Amino acid sequence: MSLAVGIIGAARVATYAMIAPAKARSDVVVAAVAARDPQRAAAYAAAHGIARSFGNYAQMVADPDIDAVYVATPPAFHLEHARLAIRASKPVLVEKPFTLNTAEAAALLADADAAGVLVVEAMHSRHHPCWAAVQALLPRIGRITHIDAVFDVAVSTAADEFRWDAALGGGALMDLGVYPLAWVRTIAGEPIAVSRAELARERGADARFAAHLVLPGGITAHVAADMTGARQARLTIIGSAGSIIVQNPMSVREGEDILLITSAGLERHPVAGPATFSAQLAAFITHLSGKAPWPLPADDPLRSMQAIDLVRSAA
Q: How confident is the model at residue 273 (pLDDT cuts 50, 70, 90)?
Protein backbone atom coordinates (compact mmCIF):
# COMPACT_ATOMS: atom_id res chain seq x y z
CA MET A 1 0.00 0.00 0.00
CA SER A 2 1.37 3.41 -0.98
CA LEU A 3 1.81 6.38 1.31
CA ALA A 4 -0.50 9.12 0.02
CA VAL A 5 1.13 12.54 0.24
CA GLY A 6 -0.69 15.85 -0.05
CA ILE A 7 1.25 18.94 -1.08
CA ILE A 8 0.45 22.32 0.45
CA GLY A 9 1.40 24.88 -2.18
CA ALA A 10 1.43 24.55 -5.96
CA ALA A 11 5.13 25.37 -5.93
CA ARG A 12 8.03 24.80 -8.29
CA VAL A 13 10.13 23.23 -5.52
CA ALA A 14 7.59 20.44 -5.10
CA THR A 15 8.11 19.28 -8.68
CA TYR A 16 11.68 18.13 -8.03
CA ALA A 17 11.64 17.75 -4.25
CA MET A 18 8.56 15.53 -3.98
CA ILE A 19 6.76 14.78 -7.24
CA ALA A 20 9.73 13.49 -9.26
CA PRO A 21 11.21 11.22 -6.55
CA ALA A 22 7.74 9.92 -5.66
CA LYS A 23 7.09 8.90 -9.27
CA ALA A 24 10.21 6.74 -9.13
CA ARG A 25 8.85 4.70 -6.22
CA SER A 26 5.99 2.24 -5.82
CA ASP A 27 5.42 2.84 -2.09
CA VAL A 28 4.41 6.51 -2.25
CA VAL A 29 2.12 8.61 -4.39
CA VAL A 30 1.46 12.35 -4.52
CA ALA A 31 -2.29 12.06 -4.15
CA ALA A 32 -3.34 15.70 -3.93
CA VAL A 33 -2.20 19.31 -4.09
CA ALA A 34 -3.78 22.36 -2.48
CA ALA A 35 -3.44 26.04 -3.35
CA ARG A 36 -5.31 29.15 -2.29
CA ASP A 37 -6.55 29.51 -5.86
CA PRO A 38 -8.62 26.45 -6.88
CA GLN A 39 -7.86 27.01 -10.56
CA ARG A 40 -4.12 27.15 -9.90
CA ALA A 41 -4.36 23.93 -7.87
CA ALA A 42 -6.31 22.19 -10.65
CA ALA A 43 -3.89 23.32 -13.35
CA TYR A 44 -0.89 22.19 -11.28
CA ALA A 45 -2.49 18.80 -10.63
CA ALA A 46 -3.22 18.31 -14.31
CA ALA A 47 0.31 19.30 -15.32
CA HIS A 48 1.94 16.87 -12.90
CA GLY A 49 -0.43 13.91 -13.01
CA ILE A 50 -1.87 14.43 -9.53
CA ALA A 51 -5.33 12.91 -9.09
CA ARG A 52 -6.94 15.51 -6.82
CA SER A 53 -6.69 19.23 -6.16
CA PHE A 54 -8.06 21.47 -3.43
CA GLY A 55 -8.59 25.20 -3.11
CA ASN A 56 -8.35 24.95 0.67
CA TYR A 57 -5.32 23.73 2.62
CA ALA A 58 -7.19 22.61 5.72
CA GLN A 59 -9.69 20.63 3.64
CA MET A 60 -6.93 18.67 1.91
CA VAL A 61 -5.01 17.99 5.12
CA ALA A 62 -8.15 16.74 6.86
CA ASP A 63 -9.05 14.39 4.01
CA PRO A 64 -8.88 10.78 5.32
CA ASP A 65 -7.18 9.60 2.12
CA ILE A 66 -4.12 11.77 2.78
CA ASP A 67 -1.50 10.05 4.95
CA ALA A 68 1.24 12.68 5.10
CA VAL A 69 1.79 16.31 4.16
CA TYR A 70 4.59 18.17 2.40
CA VAL A 71 4.64 21.94 2.99
CA ALA A 72 6.01 23.77 -0.06
CA THR A 73 4.80 27.31 0.61
CA PRO A 74 7.12 30.27 1.39
CA PRO A 75 8.75 30.15 4.86
CA ALA A 76 6.46 32.86 6.25
CA PHE A 77 3.60 30.33 6.13
CA HIS A 78 5.42 27.17 7.29
CA LEU A 79 4.32 27.48 10.93
CA GLU A 80 0.68 27.99 10.01
CA HIS A 81 0.56 25.24 7.41
CA ALA A 82 2.51 22.65 9.40
CA ARG A 83 0.12 23.23 12.28
CA LEU A 84 -2.76 22.21 10.00
CA ALA A 85 -1.07 18.83 9.58
CA ILE A 86 -0.40 18.51 13.31
CA ARG A 87 -4.05 19.16 14.12
CA ALA A 88 -5.01 16.45 11.64
CA SER A 89 -2.42 14.07 13.14
CA LYS A 90 -0.61 13.82 9.82
CA PRO A 91 3.21 13.61 9.67
CA VAL A 92 4.67 16.57 7.82
CA LEU A 93 7.82 17.32 5.84
CA VAL A 94 8.40 21.09 5.90
CA GLU A 95 10.46 22.65 3.14
CA LYS A 96 13.56 24.53 4.27
CA PRO A 97 14.10 26.93 5.90
CA PHE A 98 11.93 25.40 8.61
CA THR A 99 10.30 28.65 9.76
CA LEU A 100 10.95 32.40 9.75
CA ASN A 101 13.00 32.36 12.95
CA THR A 102 14.04 30.43 16.06
CA ALA A 103 10.93 31.32 18.06
CA GLU A 104 8.65 29.89 15.39
CA ALA A 105 10.78 26.76 15.08
CA ALA A 106 10.62 26.16 18.83
CA ALA A 107 6.85 26.66 18.84
CA LEU A 108 6.31 24.28 15.92
CA LEU A 109 8.47 21.52 17.39
CA ALA A 110 6.73 21.92 20.75
CA ASP A 111 3.33 21.57 19.09
CA ALA A 112 4.49 18.47 17.24
CA ASP A 113 5.92 16.91 20.38
CA ALA A 114 2.77 17.59 22.37
CA ALA A 115 0.62 16.01 19.66
CA GLY A 116 2.98 13.11 19.01
CA VAL A 117 3.19 13.99 15.32
CA LEU A 118 6.35 13.82 13.22
CA VAL A 119 7.45 17.21 11.87
CA VAL A 120 10.81 17.34 10.06
CA GLU A 121 12.66 19.75 7.81
CA ALA A 122 13.38 19.01 4.16
CA MET A 123 17.16 19.41 4.39
CA HIS A 124 17.71 17.17 1.38
CA SER A 125 21.46 17.62 0.92
CA ARG A 126 22.10 16.07 4.35
CA HIS A 127 20.52 12.77 3.37
CA HIS A 128 23.10 11.77 0.80
CA PRO A 129 25.44 8.87 1.73
CA CYS A 130 28.43 11.11 0.94
CA TRP A 131 28.27 12.44 4.52
CA ALA A 132 29.19 9.03 5.90
CA ALA A 133 32.19 9.00 3.56
CA VAL A 134 33.24 12.47 4.73
CA GLN A 135 32.98 11.43 8.37
CA ALA A 136 35.13 8.37 7.66
CA LEU A 137 37.84 10.55 6.08
CA LEU A 138 37.95 13.20 8.81
CA PRO A 139 40.51 11.38 11.04
CA ARG A 140 42.99 11.48 8.17
CA ILE A 141 43.22 15.28 8.13
CA GLY A 142 44.00 15.63 11.83
CA ARG A 143 42.50 18.37 13.96
CA ILE A 144 39.98 20.47 12.04
CA THR A 145 40.98 24.13 12.00
CA HIS A 146 38.79 25.82 9.41
CA ILE A 147 35.80 25.13 7.15
CA ASP A 148 34.75 27.01 4.03
CA ALA A 149 31.23 26.48 2.70
CA VAL A 150 29.53 28.31 -0.13
CA PHE A 151 26.37 27.95 -2.20
CA ASP A 152 25.58 30.40 -5.00
CA VAL A 153 22.80 30.20 -7.55
CA ALA A 154 21.16 32.87 -9.68
CA VAL A 155 17.56 33.36 -8.56
CA SER A 156 14.93 34.56 -11.01
CA THR A 157 14.02 38.23 -10.71
CA ALA A 158 10.43 37.62 -11.81
CA ALA A 159 7.89 39.74 -9.96
CA ASP A 160 6.29 36.72 -8.29
CA GLU A 161 9.57 35.23 -6.99
CA PHE A 162 9.13 35.19 -3.20
CA ARG A 163 12.85 34.75 -2.58
CA TRP A 164 13.32 38.47 -3.20
CA ASP A 165 10.83 39.28 -0.43
CA ALA A 166 12.33 39.15 3.08
CA ALA A 167 8.87 39.31 4.67
CA LEU A 168 8.03 35.97 3.04
CA GLY A 169 11.28 34.39 4.21
CA GLY A 170 13.32 35.11 1.11
CA GLY A 171 16.92 36.25 0.83
CA ALA A 172 20.29 34.59 0.36
CA LEU A 173 20.75 33.76 4.04
CA MET A 174 17.41 31.99 4.42
CA ASP A 175 17.02 30.39 1.01
CA LEU A 176 20.62 29.45 0.18
CA GLY A 177 22.68 30.01 3.32
CA VAL A 178 20.69 27.46 5.28
CA TYR A 179 22.62 24.77 3.37
CA PRO A 180 26.27 25.78 3.96
CA LEU A 181 25.36 26.48 7.57
CA ALA A 182 23.99 22.93 7.80
CA TRP A 183 27.17 21.48 6.29
CA VAL A 184 29.37 23.34 8.76
CA ARG A 185 27.16 22.34 11.69
CA THR A 186 27.33 18.70 10.59
CA ILE A 187 31.12 18.71 10.66
CA ALA A 188 31.91 20.96 13.61
CA GLY A 189 28.80 21.42 15.75
CA GLU A 190 26.70 24.46 16.52
CA PRO A 191 28.15 27.96 16.06
CA ILE A 192 29.23 29.69 19.27
CA ALA A 193 29.54 33.16 17.81
CA VAL A 194 29.72 35.15 14.57
CA SER A 195 32.88 37.26 14.43
CA ARG A 196 31.82 39.09 11.26
CA ALA A 197 28.83 39.07 8.93
CA GLU A 198 27.79 41.07 5.91
CA LEU A 199 24.49 41.16 4.02
CA ALA A 200 24.10 43.00 0.71
CA ARG A 201 20.51 43.98 0.01
CA GLU A 202 18.85 44.24 -3.38
CA ARG A 203 15.18 44.59 -4.20
CA GLY A 204 13.38 43.39 -1.06
CA ALA A 205 15.88 40.97 0.47
CA ASP A 206 19.55 40.17 1.00
CA ALA A 207 21.02 39.21 -2.35
CA ARG A 208 24.18 37.75 -0.80
CA PHE A 209 25.79 37.24 2.56
CA ALA A 210 29.06 36.14 4.08
CA ALA A 211 29.81 35.27 7.69
CA HIS A 212 32.74 34.13 9.77
CA LEU A 213 31.79 31.69 12.53
CA VAL A 214 33.45 30.56 15.73
CA LEU A 215 32.73 26.90 16.44
CA PRO A 216 33.49 24.46 19.28
CA GLY A 217 37.14 23.62 19.80
CA GLY A 218 38.38 26.84 18.27
CA ILE A 219 37.36 25.86 14.75
CA THR A 220 36.52 28.77 12.45
CA ALA A 221 34.31 28.76 9.38
CA HIS A 222 33.47 30.99 6.46
CA VAL A 223 29.98 30.58 5.00
CA ALA A 224 28.54 32.48 2.08
CA ALA A 225 25.72 32.48 -0.45
CA ASP A 226 24.78 34.64 -3.43
CA MET A 227 21.46 34.80 -5.28
CA THR A 228 23.01 36.71 -8.20
CA GLY A 229 26.05 34.56 -8.99
CA ALA A 230 26.73 31.55 -11.18
CA ARG A 231 25.90 28.26 -9.53
CA GLN A 232 28.54 26.80 -7.29
CA ALA A 233 28.40 24.58 -4.21
CA ARG A 234 31.57 23.70 -2.36
CA LEU A 235 32.69 22.49 1.05
CA THR A 236 36.34 22.56 2.12
CA ILE A 237 37.42 21.14 5.47
CA ILE A 238 40.96 22.10 6.49
CA GLY A 239 42.81 20.13 9.15
CA SER A 240 46.26 20.05 10.70
CA ALA A 241 47.26 17.14 8.45
CA GLY A 242 45.34 17.76 5.26
CA SER A 243 42.03 18.81 3.79
CA ILE A 244 38.80 17.39 2.35
CA ILE A 245 36.92 18.95 -0.54
CA VAL A 246 33.33 18.01 -1.30
CA GLN A 247 32.85 19.35 -4.80
CA ASN A 248 29.05 19.43 -4.84
CA PRO A 249 27.62 19.04 -1.33
CA MET A 250 24.31 20.56 -2.41
CA SER A 251 23.29 17.78 -4.79
CA VAL A 252 25.96 15.12 -4.94
CA ARG A 253 25.74 13.01 -8.07
CA GLU A 254 26.96 9.47 -8.56
CA GLY A 255 30.46 9.47 -9.98
CA GLU A 256 31.54 12.75 -8.39
CA ASP A 257 34.53 12.63 -6.09
CA ILE A 258 35.35 13.65 -2.55
CA LEU A 259 38.92 14.89 -2.64
CA LEU A 260 41.36 14.08 0.17
CA ILE A 261 44.59 16.07 0.15
CA THR A 262 47.40 15.09 2.52
CA SER A 263 51.19 15.07 2.48
CA ALA A 264 50.92 11.78 0.58
CA GLY A 265 49.15 13.52 -2.29
CA LEU A 266 45.64 13.70 -3.73
CA GLU A 267 43.12 10.89 -3.35
CA ARG A 268 39.79 10.75 -5.12
CA HIS A 269 36.95 8.98 -3.33
CA PRO A 270 33.97 8.46 -5.68
CA VAL A 271 30.54 8.76 -4.14
CA ALA A 272 27.56 6.62 -4.98
CA GLY A 273 23.95 6.61 -3.98
CA PRO A 274 20.63 8.16 -5.01
CA ALA A 275 19.95 11.82 -5.71
CA THR A 276 19.53 13.86 -2.55
CA PHE A 277 15.78 14.39 -2.94
CA SER A 278 15.30 10.66 -3.52
CA ALA A 279 17.36 9.89 -0.42
CA GLN A 280 15.29 12.33 1.61
CA LEU A 281 11.98 10.83 0.52
CA ALA A 282 13.31 7.32 1.21
CA ALA A 283 14.30 8.39 4.74
CA PHE A 284 10.82 9.88 5.31
CA ILE A 285 9.03 6.74 4.15
CA THR A 286 11.36 4.40 6.02
CA HIS A 287 10.90 6.35 9.23
CA LEU A 288 7.11 6.46 8.92
CA SER A 289 7.08 2.70 8.37
CA GLY A 290 8.93 2.23 11.66
CA LYS A 291 11.97 0.65 10.02
CA ALA A 292 14.53 3.32 10.97
CA PRO A 293 14.85 6.51 13.01
CA TRP A 294 14.90 9.86 11.26
CA PRO A 295 18.57 10.34 10.25
CA LEU A 296 18.91 13.89 11.60
CA PRO A 297 18.62 14.98 15.24
CA ALA A 298 15.10 15.82 16.39
CA ASP A 299 16.12 19.38 17.23
CA ASP A 300 18.03 19.97 13.99
CA PRO A 301 15.38 22.35 12.55
CA LEU A 302 15.65 24.46 15.70
CA ARG A 303 19.45 24.48 15.58
CA SER A 304 19.30 25.41 11.91
CA MET A 305 17.13 28.46 12.63
CA GLN A 306 19.34 29.42 15.58
CA ALA A 307 22.36 29.50 13.27
CA ILE A 308 20.49 31.67 10.77
CA ASP A 309 19.35 34.05 13.50
CA LEU A 310 22.89 34.26 14.89
CA VAL A 311 24.21 35.40 11.50
CA ARG A 312 21.28 37.71 10.92
CA SER A 313 21.69 39.47 14.26
CA ALA A 314 25.45 39.87 13.73
CA ALA A 315 24.87 41.48 10.35
A: confident
Give backbone dihedrals phi and psi of 275, rounded to 5 degrees, phi first. Answer: -60, 155
Query: Strands across the sheet with 232-239, in order?
Result: 193-202, 205-214, 220-226, 144-152, 232-239, 242-246, 257-262, 265-270
Residue 84 contacts residue 58 (beta carbons within 8 Å):
yes
Amino acid at 11: A
Instruction: Specify the pTM.
Output: 0.96
pLDDT at 31: 98
Phi, psi of 210 (to 5 degrees): -145, 140
Mean pLDDT value of segment 172-193 = 98
Q: Dihedral sign for Cα 78, 11, 8, 297, please.
A: negative
Give how far Cα 228 sits from Cα of 111, 120, 153, 159, 199, Å.
Answer: 37, 29, 7, 16, 13
Give the CA-trace dihedral at 78, 82, 83, 84, to 10 degrees.
120
Q: Is the pLDDT of residue 254 over 80?
A: no
SS (H, E, C) the chain: CCEEEEEECCCHHHHHHHHHHHHCCCCEEEEEEECCCHHHHHHHHHHHCCCEEECCHHHHHHCCCCCEEEECCCHHHHHHHHHHHHHCCCCEEEECCCCCCHHHHHHHHHHHHHHCCCEEEECHHHHCCHHHHHHHHHHHHCCEEEEEEEEECCCCCCCCCHHHEHHHCCCHHHHHHHHHHHHHHHHHCCCCEEEEEEEEEECEEEEEEEEEEECHHHCEEEEEEECCCCCEEEEEEEECCEEEEECCCCCCCCCCEEEEEECCEEEEEECCCCCHHHHHHHHHHHHHCCCCCCCCCCCHHHHHHHHHHHHHHHC
68-71 and 92-95 as β-strands: parallel, antiparallel, unpaired? parallel
pLDDT in tens, 60-97: 999 999 999 999 999 999 999 999 999 999 999 999 99
